[in-house]
């Protein structure tokens, strides 16, 4: 075990386990699999953790491994719940869903564990399309945040936040939101 100080957020290079953060913008599924399946000499297993990927993200990873990742002979082992991939293992790499351990929405995790400074920003999922990957400018339209999917409490907080950002001419950078927030929380 290689302990890090509890109060230290570390995203650089570790001499023991290597790079701790990768920002994957082009061909993210292929690059994730390449990184995860790279042989390691200092430890035997790699665990990839995401929150609620079972019905969406993990499907892409599985498909890529089965159909396109033919240069390494390995068949993924999966545990499924209907069409959802709960757990997937290939070679010495395990893909797990933190939702199986934290039964709450991702944006509730920081407060549940006394880490309000890590509260996840609201994200404009409908704005996250290939042509907007390098967007820097005003906050995207209200509709981009899919407010109709929010609870009344979430909607109230969101509208307050959105109006404040708009009035203050906040400069929105999609890559900043995509990069560190999720990693810090998990």
TrEMBL record:
GO terms for molecular function: nucleic acid binding. InterPro entries: RNaseH-like_sf (IPR012337), RNaseH_sf (IPR036397). This is DNA-directed DNA polymerase. It comes from Nasonia vitripennis (Parasitic wasp). The lineage of its organism: Eukaryota, Metazoa, Ecdysozoa, Arthropoda, Hexapoda.
